[in-house]
Structure formats: C-alpha cells, structure tokens
Amino acid sequence: MYPFFSKVAFTHRMYNNQLQEELLPFGITVTQWALIRYLKNNGSATFSDVADYWQVEKPAITPIAQKLAAREIISISSGADKRQKIMYLSEKGEALHKTIMEATDPFLEEILEGISPEERDAAAAALEKIIMNLKRRG
C-alpha cells in the first residue's frame, strides 16, 4: 500500500524536475507555469480561487502572480471589493501558453511512451478517487 504513495511522490518530483528543465528557455518556473495553465483553463481568477484549488494559503500566490505581472504575462486588477485581486492572462501570456504547450508536447509524449490510453485513464481515475477521499477527510 505505502509503496504506491512513495511512487506517486517520486514521480511528482521527477516530473517537476524534468519539466523545470523544459521551461528554462522560457524563464518560467513550474509553479508559474501552473498558474498560467490555471488561468488559461479557467479564465480570470482571484488569488483566493487559485489558493483554494492548490490547497495553499493565499499569500503563497502573491509572489508568483507578481513575477508574472512584472513580465506582463498576466494582468491583475481590483475586483468589486478593492481587497480582491483578479488575475487573467494577457495577450503576451496567451501567446506564451501556446508556445510552451507546443514546446513541451514532445516531453509529455515521451514520458507517457508505452502507456496505453486505457492505462492513462485508469491511473487518472485512481488519482481522482484519492483526491476525492482526501477532500472528504477535510
């Protein structure tokens, strides 16, 4: 049972380390890339939205967002409540997302080599069940 979680953790570390190498030419970290992908997939979002989704404290999002905003990859505006900040991808961010997706696609295909679509779906389904079980625990 426990070796399963060790393998998940080890796979996560290896994936992040190798993904970081793929992102180096773009000057983007894995965490910054995660925020770019989140905004691309979800549209605009508040810092709280992202923090809730990532299961982190809201202040953890601030430096990531600020660095991307400084590079004009995302834009940050005030919401109806001045304390609420809303992030969204800029045109530059949209273009960067497309470029990185195209550049990392061969990497993703390579690491999934030899794994059938059915095996991918089964692994994803198992991980989703674990996520649901963890959320149920609180």
List the helices and strands and how they pair.
Elements: H1 2-23, H2 30-42, E1 45-46, H3 47-54, H4 61-70, E2 74-78, E3 85-89, H5 91-111, H6 117-137
Antiparallel strand pairs: 1-3, 2-3
What would your notes on this structure say?
The protein is 69% helix and 9% strand. The chain has a 3-stranded antiparallel sheet with strand order 1-3-2. It has helices at residues 2-23, 30-42, 47-54, 61-70, 91-111, 117-137; strands spanning 45-46, 74-78, 85-89. It is built from 6 helices and 3 strands; from the N terminus they run ααβααββαα.
Helix content: 55-70%
Class by alpha and beta content = mainly alpha
Largest sheet: 3 strands, antiparallel
| Neighbour order of strands in the largest sheet | 1-3-2
Described by the principal axes of the CA atoms, the overall outline is globular
The first-to-last residue Cα distance is 22 Å
Order of helices and strands: HHEHHEEHH
Strands, total number: 3
- Average pLDDT, all residues: 95
Number of helices: 6
Question: What fraction of the residues are assigned to beta strands by DSSP?
Answer: 5-15%
Low-confidence stretches: none
Rg from Cα: 17 Å
Brief descriptors of the model:
single chain, 138 residues, mainly alpha, three-stranded antiparallel beta sheet, 6 helices, 3 strands
Quick synopsis:
With 138 residues, this protein is mainly alpha-helical. It is built from six helices and three strands; from the N terminus they run ααβααββαα.
